[in-house]
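Example 3.2
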Amino acid sequence: MKRGERRVAESTQGDQLGLFEREKRGGKRRGAGRPPKGARAGERHQRRPVHHASHPVHVVLRAVKTVGSLRRRRTYHAIRAATRVTARREDFRIVHISIQRTHVHLLVEAKNKLALAAGMQGFQISAAKHLNAAISVGRPGPRRKGTVFPDRYHAVVIDSPRQARHALSYVINNWRKHAEDRGELTRRWDVDWYSSGAMFSGWKEQGSKSFVLRGPSELEPRMVVSAPKTWLLRDGWQMHGAISCREVPSRRAEAPRI
């Protein structure tokens, strides 16, 4: 082989070897993997930090639009059924819950990171099952089997008394933030009956004659929630003052983005 031909052969072989190595190297490719879903599909899925049992968590679950408003009698009882299933767990507790039209707020406690993940997964599966059954009643065609909660839940760890007080008010008074207290019926409510507010014992107005815990019969029985075991949700939050049932929560850094 002549010198010039040898150079061409070596160059061609090098190019082929480089191409083979690039193909073999693999790795993450743009557009590969499970396609994202939901309105916030572009958000980065970050690894959740280690969870400590002493820290409650404020969780938000957003529902798909095709489910419709969650603030209806049937959907209320569907979500209540999921809280009843979740209450059987010993390592995970729902302390408070609030149902809004498009999303659900939860204040939860868990033994560890695995218990938090398993507890939330169990609640979402049970809620989706009961919600699909509830919204299929009276509709023509087969029972709905689609996704209810398309995105990963958004969680904020609570690690201070001030943050705990804000989270409590934010969850059980969330209906006032969304002006749900201005309806013909709801304007007569002191607490949101689509939440666990009736089970909260720390209301500033508790004991007042004007404070009436009486809701509509179609929203009975109440949500199945557990008494808090963490110091922050049990006692710590009181360091920053009682919570009024008339408070309108504001959006702060320690509240999940919705």
